[in-house]
Specification:
Helix content: 25-40%
Distance between the termini: 36 Å
Strand content: 15-25%
Number of strands: 10
Structural class: alpha+beta
Bound molecules: adenosine-5'-diphosphate, magnesium ion
């Protein structure tokens, strides 16, 4: 676990702008110690909400990756994150579809974060365009920032507070997750497949997502984008987790292969070593 500053008392905030409010948690942008931060504040004493809030803080504190927004500090009722300027992928998709190059690049960023997260025993379980921020508004691999571990499953945490409950957002939720299965990393790969679909099509694959999850509706919109990406998209979105890539790394490898076929760059945003000292 990283060293996250523990602050004993609830912090006074200035310059607050409310972002959302649900599950007894208020999300705000605020000034704190001279920087703009994203603060989540627990406003209820309901034990379930408090347990979920604590869980979110513990998971966020345990992760460290350039494409995952870190927890800066926490008080008994607040979680502080650095504010990533740029806006969520949702906002970008609302403005129009991505090009193939952009969609592939954003997917690569999501998968790179997932490789790290899954290796640390964490499954996000609520990946969707609202929970992906694009630093600087850029549709690039290195600009991807994953947020919101409020519904995540962590192998290292003794209590699975979400077991038996149905959570998530129907369009992006894997069918087994809808059935109550928690902690399968392949559920995140399903969501990543839906995000790729939506980024290229401009809409999610199922009009009636709930009907599809229940199994009463079978129709899926036509696969968007170039055929080179279709096996990856179909595989990731298969109803049965066994039909999906075995891991985020396997999906990343499949994506790299598709990029070669498409003549797109396969390099990730990893900084390249200089051939000689400048
Ligand atoms: N660190 C951040 N930087 C910039 N925007 C953020 C950050 N964290 C969250 N947001 C924005 O706030 C919204 C709500 O935050 P989120 O953590 O997803 O909380 P909720 O539990 O309300 O879904 C996100 O959809 C995103 O637009
Ligand atoms: Mg969210």
């Amino acid at each position: 676990m990283r060293d996250v500053e523990w602050i004993a008392a609830e912090q006074r905030l200035t310059g607050t702008v409310s972002v959302s409010m649900h599950g007894g948690v208020l999300t705000q942008v605020a000034n704190w110690r001279g920087q703009r931060v994203l603060v989540k504040t627990l406003l209820t004493t309901d034990p379930d909400s408090a347990a979920r809030f604590e869980h979110e803080g513990q998971v966020a504190a345990a992760l460290r990756h350039p494409l995952i927004v870190p927890l800066l500090a926490q008080s008994p009722t607040q979680l502080f994150f650095p504010l990533v300027p740029g806006g969520p992928l949702r906002e970008r998709l609302d403005a129009g579809r991505l090009t193939v190059r952009e969609a592939v690049s954003v997917l690569r960023g999501i998968l790179r974060a997932l490789v790290n997260m899954h290796a640390q025993g964490v499954v996000h379980q609520d990946l969707k365009p609202e929970n992906i921020v694009l630093a600087g508004g850029k549709t690039r691999c290195g600009a991807v920032r994953i947020i919101d571990f409020g519904m995540s499953h962590a192998r290292h945490l003794p209590l699975d507070i979400h077991s038996g409950t149905r959570m998530g957002t129907p369009h992006y939720m894997a069918p087994e997750q809808f059935q109550g299965v928690r902690g399968d990393p392949r559920s995140d790969l399903y969501s990543a497949g839906v995000i790729l679909f939506e980024a290229l099509a401009g809409h999610p694959p199922y009009e009636d997502a709930l009907g599809w999850l229940i199994g009463t509706r079978k129709e899926r919109a036509e696969l968007p984008g170039p055929p080179e990406l279709h096996p990856l998209m179909l595989g990731a979105m298969s109803r049965d987790p066994a039909g999906r890539p075995a891991s985020a790394q396997a999906m990343l490898d499949e994506l790299a292969l598709a990029c070669v076929r498409l003549g797109l760059p396969t390099l990730t945003a990893r900084p390249m070593p200089l051939p000689f000292a400048p």
